[in-house]
Amino acid sequence: MTxxxxxxxxxxxxxxxxxxxxxEHYEPAIREGxxxxxxxxxxxxxxxxxxxxxxTILALANSGELLERVTTVLFNLMSSxxxxxLEAIAEKMMPELSKHRNNISLNPDLFKxxxxxxxxxxxxxxxxxxxxxxxxxxxxxxxxxxxxNEKNKEAFRKISTELSTLTLRFSQxxxxxxxxxxxxxxxxxxxxxxxxxxxxxxxHTAKEKGKENCWVFTLQAPSxxxxxKYSKCRKLRQELYMAYNxxxxxxxxxxxxxxxxxxxNLRMELAQLLGYKNYAxxxxxxxxxxxxxxxxxxLDDLLDAYTPTAQKEVEEVTVLAQxxxxxxxxxMPWDFSYFSEKLxxxxxxxxxxxxxxxxxxxxxxxxxxxxxxxxxxxxxxxNRDIPVYHPDVDAYEVLDTDGSYLAVLYTDFHPREGxxxxxxxxxxxxxxxxxxxxxxxxHVSVTMNFTKPTTDKPALLTFSEVTTFLHEFGHALxxxxxxxxxxxxxxxxxxxDFVELPSQIMENFATEKEFLNTFARHYQTGECLPDEWIQRxxxxxxxxxxxxxxxxxxxGLLDMAWYTRTEPFSGNVFTYEKEAWKRTVxxxxxxxxxxxxxxxxxxxxxxxxGYYSYKWAEVLDADAFxxxxxxxxxxxxxxxxxxxxxxxxxxxxxxxxxxKRFRGQEPTIDALLKRNGIK
Length: 679
What we know:
9 strands; globular; five-stranded mixed beta sheet; two-stranded antiparallel ribbon
């Protein structure tokens, strides 16, 4: 059998030949990748030469190319285009991949050579980037158990294998729960209050599912969010809210309660095995925050600063609800979006649905790409010859300001059954510089779940979807502008609480009139978004901003509560969750709801003991964007400095050094408080 993974990719820029890859190719390619990497590791260990940076550290960094190639495709498609057969392959191979990784990271002979080079580092005349790679390699072995005795190494192997299996099951369960739910409405009066776009989308979904004379609403964001904002039927809002917030709690195969307990306990056990008090201490040692005290300090500062305003915001929504429904009306969680939207419309005459016609997806894409052209001089060219993994996906060649090839960018915008919810950026190939000096450029993907086109209308986005696009595109720029020698330090391979700066700084442009004027036009008439509407967007930018901040802080507190534990958890997940974030609670809590069991970020998505990163980076992005505001939002010199000092550098230096090089000083919370109108 010809296996495309094992051949040189005969595609533009050696992009992944998705059109050739079949399910039966994955397992043999993974096994061959592991075999080749074992050979490469053996060659390092058995070298008769004394360990050097080149024959040990560099050789190790360059090993496993085939395995990386195959698993990158497998795990990316597990999120964006999965199926039962692909999940079965992943479930079968995860324990073997974990064992393979452990065989490398726990190999005493390999570690001995790495350690020898590390101990000579001061005499080796290494460049800063080489020294960073050496330190990262050595520290990686330490953090993966290389200094443990044989008994504890075996325990480490067992824990890491179990974690790899459990995180996969957690994600699969959540995706299945999301896909399994349908709210089927058959009466027109049940649609009361819903905008035409939501009704059309629900009819389109029903048709796709082969259902006649009905409307189908799902737990996917483009369906769930407008229903909660606009449906006049409180009973149906409650039904959908409860379906969303009780996912993975039901007595079925998709229940994640026991998996959560296992995950948090195993992570605690792993950290303590390595000599840390808890998992947060283990994780935060390699973060800008450095320790849990600084994380709690940030979260507490935000709580103190935003709680009074958040309480006023909820009170304002409550007053409106009681004016509408009666003075005895109790505002519940399934009411908040509905009455908040009414209040926003009342205060700012701003209706997100009225904005949709001005945010047709192709025009938004032109606007976002055009922003990158204005700032950085790069251009985007659709290339139909680049294979894609689904017909919804487009592939672009990205050219630098001098016309040279910079990157490939895949865009994937709409929900479907094989795709998990949310929005994310990933890479199918990261950037590095070959030994001969060739700059091997990256292949980057942005994946979202935006409102679909219908039979009669193109995809018309909400303003929040435009902001999400800008966020993920910021991550993409971080990947596309990478220019580092080593792959493991390029692009988004930075400290987790720094990685959100490039994405969140882009969100600031969403409320800039100069930017909106470049693309926001009515999809039928071509009319520009009226200036007074843009002003309303700007005026409403801080609507319920404190409530939103406390929501993020609540997630950060929940995350830290799970991962600062020093004793195994054996309690009730529902109760523990509600206790963890009780200081942020502004609305009645429902006993049967649970966030933890569907909180992929902290359970299966890499943000364990790291969810605070969004607020940490928000402090950075508010401070950094103040430079653009001061010198002009399209200022090429500021953009060039941001590209040179931050976007291109990846993880080659400590993020605070990079930030200060761009900003000239360390960030403070002041810019964020001013931007949000708190100070």
